[in-house]
Amino acid sequence: MAWIWLIVAGALEIGWAVGLKYTQGFSKLWPSVTTVVLMLASFWCLAQAVKVLPLGTSYAIWTGIGAVGTAIAGIMLFKEPATAARLACIVLIVGGILGLKVTNG
Known about the structure:
The protein has one domain (2-103). Helix content is 83%, strand content 0%. It starts with a helix and ends with a helix. Helix 1 crosses helix 3 (55-78). It is mostly helical. The protein has four helices and no strands. The longest helix has 24 residues, at 55-78.
């Protein structure tokens, strides 16, 4: 169950990171409220995961899911560049996430 909490926490991190773009510096009320709620939910889910999983592994995977998901969202939603180097770096992050999962059960 801890891994599910961690994956949900990472997905929520993607949501709040993307939400930051829509808040326009927290100047728009409802996007700002939504973003803050997603942040709190993400932290809460991460807290559930670290009850069982190692903190370092959990945090690295949480941020990795967020980084990869947010980079992909940026490419898809905001037309950010999808260069070969950028995609290769995303693949490296995914490799690190998988490596941490495999070595920590």
